């Protein structure tokens, strides 16, 4: 569910920076902020409720921010901020320490820590806000805050980055149970990354390992839906599990691997069929794009899932859109 969607360009130039500063204070935490671009501050922010936590995607020009001890005494939400940098870089300074976090890294910061943050170029990043109490046990919080920048190009960091991206791009459309599961998976990945970075040999709980594994398998499938040869057997082989183990992963969600693949393919087809930008694309090409090279098979599967053949489904949607437009 989208909580906030804000673009400074919707305001007069002289009000943009002040409005942005106020929104950051309300949605994240109080900071003293300045920027050479304050006369025409071009920035955007989207904030979502994801399973009881807040996730935001932000884009803004170079700025200088201070989280001072005075501001912390005045207001401290006691939150952890998990930031995935997509563009630009952040420079964090705490007393004599400096940490540079550039593109394709994840960093965890603490709202109770006085710090200066600098971005000397435009920045786009996704931020997941979590109560600090989630990790404040058995040394987990200390390990997490001393992990440093986590590379998002490989390993656990790459999986964490994909979870954060999925939440940012699709959190508003996922069923609440899916959003909550993804948020829980992000917590599991953070705990695992902290253990790995600090050399801890303590194993993750079984349910955490299961959630991470489920996301990895589903992420593998999502990126290969266009492959008509994608089957439960090929997925199991690629992910290093048996077909029976794969079935157990999906059984926890009340489905099967084959049904999950089919549903995701058909949902991609349905999305393309109602996309005005693809109105001239033949129905058979849309089916073939998402793993249905045989038109008859595509037609039967789509009708079984949505109650109408794909061509009729598209026509009904387009007629409904035309009627709505003409009534305005």
CATH topology of the domain at 1-202: Jelly Rolls
Second CATH tier, the architecture of the domain at 1-202: Sandwich
Which CATH C-level class of the domain at 1-202 is it? Mainly Beta
Structural class: alpha+beta
Kindly state the percentage of residues in helix.
Answer: 40-55%
Radius of gyration: 23 Å
Described by the principal axes of the CA atoms, the overall outline is: globular
What is the tally of helical segments?
12
Question: Which band does the percent of strand residues land in?
Answer: 15-25%
By CATH, the superfamily of the domain at 1-202 comes out as: Jelly Rolls
Reading the helices and strands in chain order gives EHEEEEHEEEEEEHEHHHHHHHHH
Span between N and C termini?
27 Å
Low-confidence stretches: none
Strand order of the largest sheet: 1-3-4-11-6-9-12
Roughly what is the average pLDDT, rounded to an integer? 87
How many beta-strand runs? 12
How does the major sheet shape up?
Answer: 7 strands, antiparallel
């Amino acid at each position: 569910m989208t909580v906030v969607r804000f673009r400074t360009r919707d305001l007069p130039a002289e009000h943009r920076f002040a409005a942005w500063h106020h929104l950051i204070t309300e949605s994240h935490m109080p900071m003293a902020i300045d920027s050479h671009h304050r006369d025409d501050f071009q920035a955007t922010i989207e904030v979502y409720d994801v399973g009881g936590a807040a996730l935001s995607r932000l884009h803004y020009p170079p700025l200088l921010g201070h989280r001072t001890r005075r501001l912390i005494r005045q207001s401290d939400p006691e939150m952890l901020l998990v930031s995935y940098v997509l563009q630009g870089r952040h420079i964090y300074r705490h007393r004599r320490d400096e940490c540079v976090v550039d593109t394709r890294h994840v960093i965890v910061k603490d709202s109770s820590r006085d710090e200066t943050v600098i971005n000397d170029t435009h920045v786009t990043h996704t931020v997941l806000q979590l109560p600090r109490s989630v990790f404040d046990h058995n040394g987990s919080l200390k390990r997490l805050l001393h992990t440093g920048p986590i590379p998002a190009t490989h390993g656990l960091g790459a999986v964490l980055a994909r979870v954060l991206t999925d939440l940012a791009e699709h959190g508003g459309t996922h069923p609440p149970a899916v959003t909550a599961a993804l948020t829980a998976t992000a917590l599991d990945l953070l705990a695992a990354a902290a253990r790995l970075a600090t050399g801890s040999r303590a194993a993750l709980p079984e349910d955490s390992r299961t959630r991470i594994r489920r996301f990895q398998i589903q992420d593998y499938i999502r990126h290969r839906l266009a492959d008509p040869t994608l089957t439960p057997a090929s997925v199991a082989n690629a992910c290093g599990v048996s077909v029976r183990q794969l079935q157990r992963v999906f059984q926890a969600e009340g489905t099967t691997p084959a049904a999950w693949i089919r549903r995701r393919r058909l949902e991609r087809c349905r999305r393309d069929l109602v996309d005005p930008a693809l109105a001239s694309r033949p129905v058979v090409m849309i089916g073939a794009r998402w793993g249905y090279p045989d038109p008859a098979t595509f037609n039967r599967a789509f009708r079984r899932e949505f109650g109408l053949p794909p061509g009729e489904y598209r026509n009904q949607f387009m007629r409904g859109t035309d009627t709505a437009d003409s009534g305005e």
